[in-house]
Design goal:
The complex is a heterodimer. By secondary structure, chain A is an alpha+beta fold. Chain A has 4 helices and 6 strands, in the order αβαββββαβα. In chain A, strand 3 and strand 4 form a beta hairpin. Chain A starts with a helix and ends with a helix. The model of chain A has no long low-confidence stretch (mean pLDDT about 90). In chain B, helix 10 crosses helix 11. Helices cover about 70% and strands about 0% of the residues of chain B. Chain B has 15 helices and 2 strands. The radius of gyration of chain B is 22 Å and the shape is globular. A two-stranded antiparallel sheet of chain B has the order 1-2. By secondary structure, chain B is mostly helical. Classes of the chains: A alpha+beta, B mainly alpha. At the A-B interface, strand 3 and strand 4 of A face helix 10 and helix 11 of B.
Amino acid sequence: MADNERKVTMKYVIAVIQPDRLDAVMSLLEQKEIHLVTVTSVMGRGRQKGIAEVYRSHKEAGNLLRKVKLEIAVNDDFVQPTTDAIIEGARTGKVGDGKIFVLDLKECIRVRTGETGGEAIG
Amino acid sequence: MSTRRVSMLAVAILVSLMAGFMPIHQDAFADDAIASAAGSAKVAATSPSTPKVDTGDTAWVLTSSALVLMMTIPALALFYGGLVRRKNVLSILMQCFMITCLISIQWLLFGYSLSFGPDIKGLIGNLSWAGLHGVGAVPNSDYAATIPHLAFMIFQAMFAIITPALIIGAFAERMRFIPFCAFTLLWATLIYDPVCHWVWGVGGFLRNMGALDFAGGTVVHINAGMAALAAALVLGRRAGYPKFVSPPHNLPFAVIGAGLLWFGWFGFNGGSALGANGLAAFAFVSTHMAAAAAGLTWAVMDLVFNKRPTVLGTISGGVAGLVSITPASGFVTPMGGLGIGIGAGIVCYLSVAFAKTKLGYDDTLDAFGVHGVGGIWGALATGLWATKSVNPAGADGLLYGNPALLWIQLKTVLIVMAFSFVGSFALLKLVDKVAGLRVSELDERIGLDLTQHRESGYTVID
């Protein structure tokens, strides 16, 4: 019983959003006390078609667009606030708003102290 | 022959050349001390009395020499460098820098003598000026009577440097470095120096025929352009061309490069007047107007064919205009420059956007499309717009009632095109056989910076 109680399951939230929505999303996450995040600049495409670039004789088909990817590790009870914050900040109602993926997270370890699990996440 | 052996051989040749010329080099200084008074016989074709050095002319030509050097490093380096993939940016910069080093020395040791030295049968100069023997402070009145001979020499050196650098655009992203150095030295000696002599050297047969080339339309641009075409054909297409080719990795670099090219071109064309005078002003102005007209024209053509004017297009247009006005700059009016610029924008655009795609060759950075085609247009346009009212030492063109000049220009263009293409093709095949020109498929995928130089242009993490 004690073992199960100590085990808090964790999730890894990956969100791909429009680059100009990042500031809005970050401030909403702060408000919900979600501070730890990794942000990368990525190229991607969903249903939104790319912009066809032209360089002298060379015309690109227009495939990938700039996006921003956020990666946040959270305890289970924080998944809903996290996705709410992201959706509220990133949604514009147009095609290209992005997607959120929620993955099961098996382990999380704080490098400095060696803490693991739910304590290491926050 | 392995790369190591080729480079050892190259070093051995270079060292022995330098050692061999040392004694003559010392003589040159001793001679010049008494040359002005005695009129040394070693300095061919100077007048008996000492020509007077004009300070304004000398200042302008030396300044122009520096401007033209800047056109290679860093203008052309940045222009081309910004257009290739990130993994190859250093290879472009290195090729430009190394050409500067190599050709400067080649020019000193024997290149200048072969190009401008005492004539042999209208085809080449002799080696009496090797090591710049006899080339000193005293002006050479055949070439530039009011500036030190050395000033004329160093001005021309910068042209000899930038011409092979233009060819880089054709084989970018796939040429091995040491064979590139070997090819460049051979090309400079066997292609550039002869053509330079034919068009500008005293006794050169094209010069005697009446060909007009103010600052290097044939000698520099057509010459390099045809070599570029040959290189594109000999080296072959890049992997993945034309379907999977990356766009320019740093267009801001390319814009900076183009701006510096435009700035430096005032030295290229203006300095070719070899004097601080009205002719230099004419050359300066027509150069500027041609660049402006061509840039605008290309932007308009982009608007027509691609629905939007592009940065790359506008700067390419500017460069095309500068290329085209080069042979004409000291012979045409500013309005003539305008016409030549507009023509350059149209002709080079069509060459790059349509002809290249249709014909399928991989002239990576449009060295032939802009310099070759632009040079041909410019040389012929000189035959249209040249007027003696701008330069009495020139001739009138077709639009001023003299069709003969156009015919001379056409002959000149065809001769230089043929010689440069065939000669470059042969040299490339030779170096390919001895040392191998193209990088391996794996090296091409990894990138030249890492494989040829073990360096990275941009660190990713710190």
